[in-house]
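stage 2 :: seqdesign
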């Protein structure tokens, strides 16, 4: 597939939307719509057999959802993934991590958006006060037993694809440890 150009059709402080005319391998042309968002960091706060989740209202779904702390740098800025992970953990939960381990990279929806996410495991945690943004005023944060988290996934109570995929990266990491 060959890009024949690009045209930004929308932008705000979190994302841009562009339309790219394209030429397919058979020579036909078309258009591809792309949502460009900065890369994000997702953090799995783990304390023994407990994990920390945040719950917030997700406007596009019209629902409150439990998920791992995650986010992007303000104003579509690029940010070091490790620094961003520490920031998101403090901002959303108040936790500080003594140790952060990189678990892997996730593509959000590669047929729609350029956004990718770095996943980190946070351990050696200390409690503190959260530093939430205006959009996160109604956010809640709580500890869950891992077994309860898995049950919530199985029952469809946790549906955030990034959180479920990140948990899979955690399981793979744990299985690879001696």
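stage 2 :: out
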């Amino acid at each position: 597939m060959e890009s024949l150009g690009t045209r930004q059709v929308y932008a705000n402080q979190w994302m841009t939307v562009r339309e790219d005319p394209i030429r397919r391998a058979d020579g036909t042309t078309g258009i591809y719509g792309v949502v460009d968002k900065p890369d994000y960091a997702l953090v799995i706060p783990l304390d023994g057999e407990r994990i920390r989740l945040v719950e917030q209202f997700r406007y596009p779904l019209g629902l409150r959802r439990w998920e791992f702390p995650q986010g992007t740098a303000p104003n579509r800025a690029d940010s070091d993934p490790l620094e961003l992970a520490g920031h998101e953990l403090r901002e959303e939960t108040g936790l500080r991590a003594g140790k952060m381990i990189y678990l892997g990279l996730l593509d959000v929806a590669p047929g729609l958006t350029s956004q990718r996410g770095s996943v980190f495991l946070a351990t050696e945690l200390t409690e503190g006060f959260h530093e939430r943004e205006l959009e996160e005023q109604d956010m809640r944060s709580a500890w869950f037993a891992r077994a309860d988290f898995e049950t919530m996934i199985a029952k469809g109570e946790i549906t955030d694809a990034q959180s479920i995929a990140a948990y899979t990266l955690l399981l793979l990491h744990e299985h690879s440890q001696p």
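stage 3 :: structure notes
- The first helix runs from residue 81 to 93.
- Helices lie at 81-93, 146-154, 161-176.
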